[in-house]
Amino acid sequence: MRRAPLSPSAARARFAPLWLLLTLVACSPVERPASPILARAPVTLAGTTNVEATLTALLAAHRDNRNGEVYQSGADHVDPDWFGIALVTVSGEVFMAGDAERRFPIQSTAKPFTYGLALEDHGLDTMLAKVGVNATGLPFDSLIAAAIRPRRLENPMVSAGAIATTAMIRGRSRAEKWQRVSDTFARYAGTDVAVLDEIYDYEIAHSAGSRALAYSLLTEGLFHVPCRGDAGPHCFEVPDRDGIQAVVARYLRSTSQEVSARRLAIMAATLANAGTNPTTGERALPRAHVPHVLSAMVTAGLYDSAGEWFSRVGLPAKSGVSGNIIAVVPGRFGIAVYSPPLDPSGNSVRGVAALRDLSEQWGLHVLARPAEAVLEPSGTPAD
């Protein structure tokens, strides 16, 4: 005897227990520690005490690591024991531990923010054609990398590509070009960002390598500056000697700006928040360009160890030789670590270790997120 089909309401009632069981199985993380961050809303973290306790525990776990060498940047004194960490959510919550307020030069961590400004000026297609985003697999200041990639010179996260990126910033004068860079950093940080004169003077006095990179790019026909006047958005010209020196100086000035782990975490959180500073509400970068900046950070943000970093940690990141690292968890938070001793690739030894542990503890790898990461706090699927 054929049974009458169940009505939709009757079907839901009969199979609700099975549906609930399947849902719980599908949404349960497998062999992964519970994540106090991912189990809550994307714009907040579980209690302040827990987050700050986690950050403090990371510092304690790695403080005794004495490996690495401190970069000589011209600072009067750099203590290898300095160690701080800061985390800022996309809702503007700030969590800190250790030396998170200590000031230091931003160094190469300036590069993602300058690249974002160049993307605003020219768009992705032009930046890919003029600079490129391929990883070199070579040290960040390598002349060889520039020579072996004559058609895709460098990634904007390494020195040659960053110099080329700096050259492409628009402005009617050198002063206006720098002002646009400075204003951009202020929007990311939520405050004016000063240049450390002693660091800048030291970098200029030791800029032979940067100038060599610039002239290598010029030799390969890869050094471009926007045409002056009203020649149109796609017009570029080759600078004279003074123009090249001015670009190198502007590049080194951007890397000599004063930051702290807290300030860098706000800047990273701005990228996590689709280009809007979560502490001020001011837009620093158009939303459309944020994925392009983060992609460049993935390919070469930690130089020739970027591949291992992304395999283990799984987050867009950028390091600077002053001992800082920023990492971005899109839609959730930005984080910054400061510890001066560096590994052979120029990355903070303690910073890499601490962020690797945090990624493992909280399940942050963007390509291996646990099931609860795609659910809203109520347990319903996210949009």
Secondary-structure blueprint:
Layout: H1 8-27, H2 48-62, E1 84-89, E2 94-98, E3 104-105, H3 111-130, H4 143-148, H5 159-167, H6 174-189, H7 197-205, H8 208-219, E4 225-226, E5 236-237, H9 241-255, E6 258-259, H10 261-272, H11 290-300, H12 306-312, E7 317-320, E8 324-329, E9 333-338, H13 349-362
Antiparallel strand pairs: 1-2, 1-9, 3-6, 4-5, 7-8, 8-9
Helix pairs in contact: 2-13, 3-5, 3-11, 5-8, 5-9
In short:
This protein is of the alpha+beta class and 383 residues long.
What does it look like?
- With 383 residues, the protein is of the alpha+beta class.
- The chain has a single domain (48-372), classed as DD-peptidase/beta-lactamase superfamily (Beta-lactamase), CATH 3.40.710.
- The chain has 13 helices and 9 strands.
- It has helices at 8-27, 48-62, 111-130, 143-148, 159-167, 174-189, 197-205, 208-219, 241-255, 261-272, 290-300, 306-312, 349-362, and strands at residues 84-89, 94-98, 104-105, 225-226, 236-237, 258-259, 317-320, 324-329, 333-338.
- Helix 5 (159-167) packs across helix 8.
- It is globular.
- The two termini are 44 Å apart.
Throw out a few tags for this protein:
5-stranded antiparallel beta sheet; 383 residues; disordered N terminus; alpha+beta; Beta-lactamase
